[in-house]
């Protein structure tokens, strides 16, 4: 089987890898219908932190179950499934309250940029659709595995409410799908922070009512201008840098809610700033599994079309170009077709 | 008029001060029924940070209205009133959503350790009782001005729910009243972290079901032992140091809620820790004004007795002993009688 392997900074290759197999009785092996490159893949791709050994890449996936372990009960070969990037047992106390991405047994899924993938804890991780979905729905269903689930969590964690004012920091795929999620949750005003025309366009398509191109203090000042001088009710931080966190905190009104879903790199927050900002904070790795059933219905019913974030479609053997295009911000997100 | 003035580290004195008067038409002057020393007064008292000029002390107060400015409508001379340590207009957009301590016009009330006090923005800050309360209720009513309001906010911001598990970090007066607040909100289990016998006793009286005497990693391990290994649903951080914040974050279960109400001193939080902890965070200066009407009713109806935190009662001219006793942790909280 040929899959994507990261060998070092900006060095991702397609090469022969062992065919995934059932290792534990709770595993499943699925045949990937489509995979993609995640914004978080770009951190190690850019050498931050540098990888220490060749690493199979990819953690966003959907596909047809090929084989299941002897203990797997909820999915069976032939079914179309979507799963979270974090495998979970979905029964521990943390899963039961909806934080499957902090499951006691959680395990990062890896190596999805390939034709086949082993998924641990299949019963607690995968959700099957009733029927095999049509081809045109595959991109949207694929996004539910991480990027759309993460945008959805960002909106949920920032307490987006009908009629509320929302600001989204970050115009990557997660930020754009945060806009879509906020719209779906009924936000009245959605301010997208972006300086890229193609991303602004998609943000508007997804429901953004205002675009702010300024950053840092100027960006904060613009958000305040648009929100009675106090800041937005809900702010979604979808980047993960110190600058974007600052921008987000300062853009939130006192008593408002700020979520952070971008994996933080070098972020430090001062207690005093948090204290006097009066902001609610919540975030972390999205508990995608919690939202999967609802999000799958929204896609199958045609209510949301998050697959629009894929503006580059490549056969798997051109994965290196997918990373390059996203690294250089030529593409929002690259879809990879393994077959 | 003789009132308390801080002159330098551990140097608080009673001395002659100008009689407060109406400066702006929105002011009131009240005759203090009782005042007290706040845990936050101990920071400048201990020289952290050192004060730059002699400073009149005290921001917790209740008393009888002596005089009001021409614009004041909601309170009148002769009424008994309680107000927040932060004056607020109670009409700006931030006040309207219940964050009066971030009011656009907010102003710290100061100099309450004295017989008379000027309160700015009287209409938005003070709440009058229907009748003049009996003497025995004064200590409890006084606590509503800050320490009890802060404990209540700590419990509210940590999302305390009926039947939930709560841990309280800090056994000062705020922490103890956080226990009382959690009990009042219906918490099922309340774990107080304390190693002082008299404070443990009061914590139990206020509703604590468990006492943890360990601190740091050992304290966290004990909390996990008591909570199925995952941590408490709600954790109230009532100290304000880096150590106590760490202890609180690590004691909260994934998806749980942690509040911080102790004024932070030298606290820095790493983004990565917050991200992977999956904790909700909220805190800041308590919006006491929001809670005053409800808390006043609870005291007048005899449902709560937060005045029990005063284990030292002194005439105002012995204020220095009040500071010393609290600094040395001989007293939980000192009540000062100005007349």
How would you characterize this protein structure?
The structure is a homodimer of 339-residue chains. Chain A contains 12 helices and 19 strands. The first copy, chain A, is α/β, with parallel strands linked by helices. Chain A has 2 domains: 196 residues, Medium-chain alcohol dehydrogenases, catalytic domain (Quinone Oxidoreductase, Chain A, domain 1, Alpha-Beta Complex), CATH 3.90.180.10; 136 residues, 3-Layer(aba) Sandwich (Rossmann fold), CATH 3.40.50. In chain A, the strands form 4 sheets. In chain A, strands 3, 5, 6, 9, 10, 18 and 19 form a 7-stranded mixed β-sheet that branches. A 6-stranded parallel β-sheet of chain A has the order 13-12-11-14-15-17, with helices on both faces. A 3-stranded antiparallel β-sheet of chain A has the order 2-1-4, covered by helices on one side. Chain A starts with a strand and ends with a strand. Chains A and B meet through β15, β16, α10 and β17 of A and β15, β16, α10 and β17 of B. β16 of chain A pairs antiparallel with β16 of chain B, so a sheet runs across the interface.
